Amino acid sequence: MPRPGRNTYSDQKPPYSYISLTAMAIQSCPEKMLPLSEIYKFIMDRFPYYRENTQRWQNSLRHNLSFNDCFIKIPRRPDQPGKGSFWALHPSCGDMFENGSFLRRRKRFKVLMAAERLAQSKQSEAAHYLQQQAKLRLSALAATGTHLPQMSGYNLGVSQSSTFKHPFAIENIIAREYKVPGSLAFSTMQSMSAGYPLHNQLTSAWPHMYNTGVIDTVAPISMAGGDYSAYGMPLKSLCHGGQTLPAIPVPIKPTPTSMSGFSAMPPHIPAFLSNSPQSLSPTSPQTATSQSSPATPSESLTNSSSMQSVAVH
DNA sequence: ACGTGTTTACGTGCGC
DNA sequence: GCGCACGTAAACACGT
Description:
The protein is about 40% helix and about 5% strand. The protein has 14 helices and 3 strands. It has helices at about 20-30, 35-45, 55-65, 110-120, 125-145, 170-180, 190-195, 200-205, 205-210, 220, 235-240, 255-260, 285-290, 295-310; strands spanning about 35, 70-75, 85-90. Helix 4 packs across helix 14.
């Protein structure tokens, strides 16, 4: 686990929102996912300001985790006993702080945003996109099926082969504070968000998803019944209490409209395939994404979310 | 009992 | 002024 600088802000309140702080914590660990208690610990460890009035800010932080779509809750596996779930960053939240300000975001991250964009596009384009996604996903899944990293738990090592640094990576956030104290400039944010190593993040954040075979070359076919979300997870488990199932990233607040959006899916394309193929590609995002593809890897999950909401206005 | 997660409500500050 | 992001408080449900 990276050990960025400590005590950067003495006892002053850090110029970061709770969202930023939480994102830092999550990004600081190799698995890109942390239980709530570890997020607390991270913040208190690095920002002495938050060692006091814990009840207050921790309540606020929990509120942010639940309220903001940029955080996704990952249920524990049955063999991972403990309180609470893991929390991870939504892969598409990379441009939240595009203006470089960690005090105030340009716009609140909403899963539905991309859905609205797609809903505005022509239906034929959407269908074409779905077909392309399906092809890419199939090939990606076939490629990943046999050599996925064998990880059995949250604390296991994770391949960090990608040189990509998530915008929220502690290196990117705190390091800048070191270089330019007080400066909020974050000019490289956009370029970095364009190369999100989603595959790495998925394998690290949800290793058990791969280990349990939930994602393999067979799964897409077996999931064609429409009972699965765009994340390849049974819809029933999207509701609270799905913790007995393999931990798979799910939107925190799946709306009835997003669920019903599956009806807009072309019947010949399994719901699972509507997900981003690039997100599971073992190749680099750059190579996996063709120029004609409408989505960067960082956008792909958002677009997959949009698949759920094509019918939503 | 306590920690966790969700939701609602309200106030504040900022940008347009 | 308005809308939005953010912070805070509080109530409640649920799981360990």
